[in-house]
Amino acid sequence: MLELLEFTFFRHALLGSLFASIACGIIGTYIVTRRLVFISGGITHASFGGIGIGLYTGISPLLAAAIFSVLSAFGVEWLSKRKDMREDSAIAVFWTFGMAIGIIFSFLSPGFAPDLSAFLFGNILTIPLTDIWMLIGLSVLLIGFFTCFLNPIIYIAFDREYARSRQIPVTLFEYILMMFIALTIVACLRMVGIVLVISLLTLPQMTANLFTQSFKRIIGLSIVFGYMGCLGGLFLSFQLQVPSGAAIIFFSILVYALCKIGKSIYLCSRLQTR
Predict the structure, then answer these.
(1) Contact criterion met (CB below 8 Å) for 127 and 11
(2) Using one digit for the tens of pLDDT, what is the confidence trace for 90-116?
């Protein structure tokens, strides 16, 4: 396994995994706490519309996906606040619209699109240096934003009405956080793909939540568990010769299951000793 460190693509994969774990650990904690998993799934699939447009027009698919995802996130946030539209209906509109646009423009784009499967299913071993810099920049922005505004974010995540009573601009914060969710999703597309990216934003947080209820500690543990899942998935991918994105998610689920079983056994043993 150590001989793989001699290869540039593997070192890129390790760096990408680290900063993806940081970004997903931070914004994913807000997603899970605020119960935005379904919305995040909708934004993830809506991003395919941007990829299709990027392939058709010849611009960077990730740039197009980022713009499309941010606009979709703002659209979902705006529509879900209207009295004549339910939140799940708003998500369904952008989810299906993005997928439809992506499929149409992918088929209309001239020639063969070799990167399409990488965006759908992910392959961290092919992650370019530009994506790593994007993840680094996004991680720095998230660290700075959450450090400066951690208390307002916690108030909004748990009780928006209480946050409003503290004179916090809740709507502004919600739009900014939705933008960060969209950008994090797009930044991780090459790692695990559209199909599985939502797992990076939820599984480490679920595992961390088994050991602590603190928002700050969940962020820290989520980063650790996220990177552990990436490293374990890369090792599985190398040993079994399977796609790295699916291997990362499989290993993350395995870690969660083992931690859940271990905690249950520990609690049962404590009850029996009393």
Answers:
(1) no
(2) 888 888 888 999 889 888 877 666 667
Instruction: Output the six-digit token pair for 134.
Output: 């994007």
Query: What is the Cα–Cα distance from 201 to 32, expressed in whole angstroms?
Result: 8
Q: What is the DSSP string of 193-217?
A: HHHHHHHHTTHHHHHHHTT---HHH
- Indicate whether 82 pLDDT > 80: no
Q: Within the chain, how many helices (H) and strands (E) appear?
A: 13, 0
pLDDT of residue 216: 92
Whether residue 72 contacts residue 86, with contact meaning beta carbons closer than 8 Å, is answered with no
d(CA 57, CA 207): 41
- Give the C-alpha separation, 243 to 234, whole Å: 9
The 3-state DSSP class for residue 172 equals helix
Tokens of 259: 């931690």
Contact 122/196 with Cβ under 8 angstroms?
A: yes
Q: Which amino acid is it at 140?
A: V
Provide CATH code, domain 19-273. Answer: 1.10.3470.10
CB 182 within 8 A of CB 71: no
Q: Which two tokens stand for residue 249?
A: 């998610």
Specify whether the CB–CB gap between 249 and 232 falls below 8 A. no
> pLDDT confidence of 154, banded at 50, 70, 90?
very high
Residue 87, classed as helix, strand or coil, is helix
Domain ranges for the chain: 19-273
**What is the pLDDT at residue 269?**
82
